[in-house]
Design goal:
39% of the residues lie in helices and 16% in strands. It has 2 domains: 31-114, Leucine Dehydrogenase, chain A, domain 1 (Rossmann fold), CATH 3.40.50.10860; 140-272, NAD(P)-binding Rossmann-like Domain (Rossmann fold, 3-Layer(aba) Sandwich), CATH 3.40.50. The chain is α/β, with parallel strands linked by helices and 294 residues long. The structure holds guanine. Residues 95-98, 120, 140, 169 line the site of guanine. Guanine is lined by residues 95-98, 120, 140, 169. This is Bifunctional protein FolD. It catalyses: (6R)-5,10-methenyltetrahydrofolate + H2O = (6R)-10-formyltetrahydrofolate + H(+); (6R)-5,10-methylene-5,6,7,8-tetrahydrofolate + NADP(+) = (6R)-5,10-methenyltetrahydrofolate + NADPH.
């Protein structure tokens, strides 16, 4: 039976550490960090994600604001709000929840965010800094996975890490970070995607598998090698009879993989809460670099 990498537990530890930092800040008569979230439209998952981010802010003692726009918002209106947040001395970091409606050019929006307030780490300047191993905001999900590997002291040096999915939010940055000259890192990385034939030939040879494709129960026990570290980033909503009306299902078939893997993240309670905690960490970092360096 694999070791469970308990993201919920580690995320609570991280939030407690952040809360402690914020208490010291406030005791010193300084204002707390302030995160703003921009939400466009009525996407159920996006609403839930943003509400969770606001809840996390409350938990760690940050100020938070939610700015809502209808799905019909124009690109110009959104850019105007971003400009206002860029200039606001009261705002340390902000995020624009993705995806955006089709009339909005996502790249244009991300490019408009001041990189110093880009706590998602999505701006090309921050992505470039990450790739060059310079100090910057790491995207929250990859940052969460690295922190989980670090806190559980999972050996990554010289290991073969296979990543499934090449999204800008997870797969692509993860492939860069696992290959960097640091701990966790120093892995030999294979980035697989929708055009990779016979993905199981790669996953069977992997010491570490990171799945981020959004295909429920895709990775089965017979697709991994004995003792592999399995990180499940997939969170798909599947309708059921519960009060919520859905349950969250990962990319990993937990039942078959847990018998073979050396360590594994559950869904829920694995990467998801770590992602949330790392957004708080990035916001604290944005605060420290803006207020203290003024
Ligand atoms: N949509 C799904 N994940 C994320 C995220 O981490 N940040 C933003 N802004 N949008 C998302």
């Amino acid at each position: 039976m694999a070791q469970i990498l308990d993201g919920l537990k580690i995320s609570k530890e991280i939030k407690t550490e952040i809360r402690y930092d914020v208490e010291k800040i406030v005791e010193g008569k300084r204002r707390p960090p302030h995160l703003v979230a921009i939400l466009v439209g009525q996407n159920g998952a996006s609403i839930a994600y943003v509400n969770n981010k606001i809840k996390d802010c409350r938990e760690v003692g940050f100020k938070s604001s939610l700015v809502k726009f209808p799905s019909t918002v124009s690109e110009a209106e959104l850019l105007e709000k971003i400009n206002e947040l860029n200039l606001s001395k009261d705002v340390d970091g902000f995020i624009v929840q993705l995806p955006l409606p089709p009339q909005i050019d996502q790249e244009k929006i991300i490019m408009a965010i001041d990189p110093r307030k880009d706590v998602d780490g999505f701006h090309p300047e921050n992505f470039g800094k990450m790739a060059l191993e310079m100090d910057t905001f790491l995207p929250a999900t990859p940052f969460g996975i690295l922190t989980l590997l670090e806190r559980y002291q999972i050996d990554t040096k010289g290991k073969h890490c296979v990543i499934i999915g090449r999204s800008r939010i997870v797969g692509k940055p993860m492939s860069i970070l696992m290959g960097r000259k640091d701990f966790p890192g120093n892995s030999t990385v294979t980035l697989t995607h929708s055009y990779t034939p016979h993905i199981e030939e790669f996953t069977k040879n992997a010491d570490i598998v990171i799945t981020a494709l959004g295909d429920p129960n895709f990775l089965k026990g017979d697709m991994i090698k004995q003792g592999a570290i399995v990180i499940d980033v997939g969170i798909t909503r599947i309708e059921d009879q519960s009060d919520k009306g859905y349950k969250l299902v990962g990319d990993v078939d937990f039942e078959s993989c847990k018998e073979i893997a050396g360590a594994i993240t559950p869904v829920p309670g694995g990467v998801g809460p770590m992602t949330r905690a790392m957004l708080m960490k990035n916001t604290l970092l944005a605060y420290k670099t803006s207020v203290y360096n003024d």
